[in-house]
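Repro:
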Amino acid sequence: MVKLRLKRCGRKQRAVYRIVAIDVRSRREGKDLRKVGFYDPMKNQTYLNVPVILYFLEKGAQPTGTVQNLLKKAGVFKEFPSNQMKFN
């Protein structure tokens, strides 16, 4: 199963996160399938590659709680049919 999750980057006390599509069994810093965006909590900036995110969601990828909140704020789920959403 594939998840959309945050991958920590940056330096100490200055975290920046990449939003990646990654296999569930991989650890947080493991090899990702594809980078789909980034999130900087200090500057409150996000960049999302929406077509790729929608592709992974259609294929059954599950976003983690934090990534799901970021996608809701960006309005990604408005473009995704609501009957296909299956979150835990």
